[in-house]
Design brief:
The structure holds 2 protein chains of 2 kinds. By secondary structure, chain A is α+β, with helices and mostly antiparallel strands. In chain A, about 45% of the residues lie in helices and about 25% in strands. Chain A has a single domain, classed as Heat Shock Protein 90, CATH 3.30.565. Chain A has a 5-stranded antiparallel β-sheet with strand order 1-2-3-5-4, sandwiched between helices. In chain B, strand 4, helix 2 (about 70-85) and strand 5 form a beta-alpha-beta unit. The chains are: A alpha+beta, B alpha/beta. The interface of A and B includes residues 49 and 136 of A.
């Protein structure tokens, strides 16, 4: 039932990739990735608003991986990584698309899917209200996440979160998500 | 009371709350993985300051970036300020944002709508 996870990620994230990694997501990796992208965006003279948005969405994407991922299944080739995840950033015509992928327990899929669907059903205004509600009413979870990451990504991008779950075995699936970051975030779902 | 001064790093902001100088400022980037741990000393400091506040406390927030887990900690900071304000002391938050950074402006407006403390939105040149 299992499949080549890394080939699969390369296929779903194919495009004009400016940065990609597959492996352990620790604090150091997060720092390196943020520094590399920030330098690249400045060098490419991207407008400040787009630059900041990409940086923000990247911070949340990386920290979502850091806080929420499951350890890789026991038959997966990389057993050294405490937190195995994959990330790619592609340049598109009018912005950047950020892809992330990590293992998830099959049992946890319905809850996550419902959360994403709720976000995707919402207008930009509703997402802003949802953000404020969670900010004011939910505590930071034991895993360290604030429950706001996905809502913030949707708010900053103004686009629907594209996602998929691919079954790895009876216990695990691979969760892949991507978000398009553009300079203007108010066109869709308003 | 003793000030609290924390040097900034690429992932954590500079913090300087010094009643003797009338300076209360958080600036830089706040994107640590564990923001609760980072903000704990400031929140504890504010619990003490609440007992002996200045007549007027103006808190300047000049953040370039902050992550969502910091956003909750920043709300906790504002809740402490709200308590000081509620105890009949003057408190004001100056929220700085770079021109064109509508995301940072909106973030300030979110806090303004939750916290019962006067906010001033301060646009600065990028």
């Amino acid at each position: 039932m299992s499949f080549d996870v890394e080939d699969y990620f390369s296929a779903v994230s194919s495009g004009d990739t400016i940065l990609c990694f597959k492996g352990n997501v620790d604090s150091e990796r997060i720092n390196e990735t943020l520094d590399t992208i920030e330098e690249k965006l400045i060098r490419d003279n991207e407008p400040p608003r787009l630059r900041k948005r990409v940086y923000n969405v990247l911070v949340e994407s990386l920290q979502n991986l850091y806080h929420h991922m499951e350890k890789a299944p026991p038959d997966f080739h990389d057993q050294k990584s405490e937190r195995y995840g994959m990330l790619a950033i592609n340049r598109t015509g009018n912005g950047y698309r950020i892809y992330t992928c990590n293992f998830i327990l099959n049992d946890n899929i319905p809850q996550l899917e419902e959360k994403i669907e709720q976000i995707n059903r919402s207008t930009h205004k509703e997402i802003s209200e949802l953000y404020k509600f969670i900010l004011n009413h939910q505590r930071i979870s034991a895993k360290g996440g604030g429950g706001l990451g996905l809502v913030d990504i949707a708010r900053k991008t103004g686009n629907k979160l594209e996602y998929s779950f691919k079954k790895y075995n009876d216990k695990y699936s691979l969760f892949c998500m991507n978000a398009l970051v553009r300079e203007d975030n108010k066109n869709i779902n308003t | 009371m003793k000030p609290i001064v924390i040097e900034g790093t690429p992932k954590t902001p500079s913090i300087k709350f010094d009643p003797s100088e009338g300076v209360f400022e958080i600036s830089g980037r706040s994107i640590p993985e564990n923001s609760v741990e980072f903000y704990r000393p400031l929140l504890e400091w504010l619990d003490q300051y609440k007992e002996v506040p200045l007549e007027k406390t103006v808190v300047k927030i000049r953040l370039e970036y902050f992550n969502t887990s910091s956003s909750k900690c920043i709300l906790d900071v504002f809740k402490k300020l709200e308590a000081i304000h509620k105890a009949k002391n003057e408190v004001e938050v100056n929220w700085y944002y770079e021109e064109d950074d509508e995301d940072m402006l909106e973030a300030g407006e979110d806090y303004e709508s939750i916290i019962r403390v006067p906010f001033k939105m301060m646009e600065i040149e990028a």
